[in-house]
Design brief:
It contains 12 helices and 12 strands. It is of the alpha/beta class and 341 residues long. The structure holds nicotinamide-adenine-dinucleotide (NAD) and 2'deoxy-thymidine-5'-diphospho-alpha-D-glucose.
Length: 341
């Protein structure tokens, strides 16, 4: 592959993906399309801005003329679609932007990619489309879709559109579904960067419900390597799950963070649960291991230690984000709940 278009490259996973590909494939150039919503931060790619293999086009994936124009400046060997509204709690506050970007935006991209005969399209989806597990088992690619939040419903809808375009038009798409990512450049509304940055400032951390919900953690670079493998070697029409085989209850993870940051348990606040909170996610990623030769490489202990260090070394990055719009969201989401013990 020589030239690819990435959407959402200024977000958490997209920026890690762009940096990873440019660092490992000297023959590749990337056009990054991003609207720069609250979650999109060009600073995430400041170190590669001057790389002549990288180009940034600010715009909305829902804007047909804009997307048509970018893909018309091809040829492109692949489109890798990350751009999304990605935070479950925000989708509970207002699902409108989720329907617009995650569903309509995907449809616009699919139409434009078809028109310009892009030979490979990767839909970056999520394990949340499968719904929630009980205490046993893991999601496979055959698990029926049963999304439980406006966010996951919008992602499942997009997946269904991609499937429909593949079956109807022979559109050359693959879908990837990954579990919870952690690592550098994650917006501090998600559990790990929120808790790490709060604890760095001796602020309390809001644990939803009893903290019994389980997530399966994977380092963002392992996810990026999986998406790359699906882009290069995935079979058209197939779905590939990625996960880190690292299940932890939220409260276990919270206590681990307190220990690693040397903070007291008195900073834990049990707050009102997230409505419709999925109990447990766990991914069976054996298909990706078998068919793509992929496997998670970064152990959780090492990855988490490095991630904490990254946030400590980038306190300015966190501080710049935790102002303005973020403050308004934080007040709306947590209100005075953090003052109560
Ligand atoms: P993020 O919120 O950090 O970044 C999203 C990016 O998309 C931002 O740069 C934003 O500006 C851009 N964007 C949003 N709406 C846009 C629009 N209309 N047009 C153009 N750009 C727009 O998200 P993330 O955590 O990096 O997630 C990336 C993708 O991976 C999403 O599709 C998400 O569903 C999926 N995913 C995330 C995780 C996770 O743990 N974070 C796990 C599995 C899958
Ligand atoms: O599983 C993949 C998904 O992981 C991605 O598709 C989403 O884009 C990504 O946001 C993430 O979704 P989650 O809802 O699992 O992530 P979040 O970091 O919001 O929450 C992780 C767990 O921590 C979840 O059980 C809710 C809980 N939580 C979260 C926050 C923000 C808390 O207890 N307190 C909090 O303040």
């Amino acid at each position: 592959m020589q030239r690819i278009m990435v959407t959402g490259g200024c977000g958490f996973i997209g920026s890690n993906f762009v940096r990873h590909l440019l660092a490992t494939d000297p023959g590749l150039s990337i056009v990054n399309v991003d609207k720069l919503t609250y979650a999109g931060n060009p600073e995430n790619l400041a170190d590669i801005e001057s790389d002549e293999r990288y180009a940034f086009r600010q715009g909305d994936i829902c804007d047909r003329d804009f997307i048509d124009g970018v893909l018309g400046d091809g040829p492109f060997d692949a489109v890798v679609h990350f751009a999304a509204e990605s935070h479950v709690d925000r989708s509970i506050l207002d699902s409108g932007p989720f329907v617009q970007t995650n569903i309509v935006g995907t449809q616009v991209l699919l139409d434009a990619a078809r028109k310009h005969e892009i030979p490979r399209y990767v839909q970056v989806s999520t394990d949340e489309v499968y719904g929630s597990l009980g205490t046993e088992g893991a999601f496979t690619e055959e698990t029926p879709l049963a999304p439980n939040s406006p966010y996951s419903a919008s992602k499942a809808s997009a997946d269904m559109l991609v499937r429909g375009y593949h079956y109807t038009f022979g559109f050359p798409a693959v879908i990837t579904r990954c579990s919870n990512n952690y690592g550098p450049f994650q917006f501090p509304e998600k559990l790990l960067p929120l808790f790490i940055s709060n604890l760095m400032g001796d602020q309390p951390v809001p644990v939803y419900g009893k903290g019994e919900n389980v997530r399966d953690w994977i380092h963002v670079l392992d996810h990026c390597r999986g998406i790359e493998a699906a882009m290069r070697n995935g079979k058209e029409g197939e779905v590939y799950n990625f996960g880190g085989r690292c299940e932890l209850q939220n409260i276990e993870l919270t206590k681990l963070l307190l220990k690693l940051l040397d903070k007291p348990e008195s900073l834990i606040r049990y707050v009102q649960d997230r409505p419709g909170h999925d109990l447990r996610y766990a991914i069976d990623c054996s298909k990706a291991e078998r068919e793509l030769g992929w496997a998670p490489q970064i152990g959780f202990e090492t990855g988490l230690g490095e991630t904490i260090q990254w946030y400590q070394q980038h306190a300015d990055w966190v501080a710049r984000i935790k102002s303005g719009e973020y403050t308004r969201y934080y007040d709306q989401q947590y209100g005075d709940r953090l003052d109560r013990s």
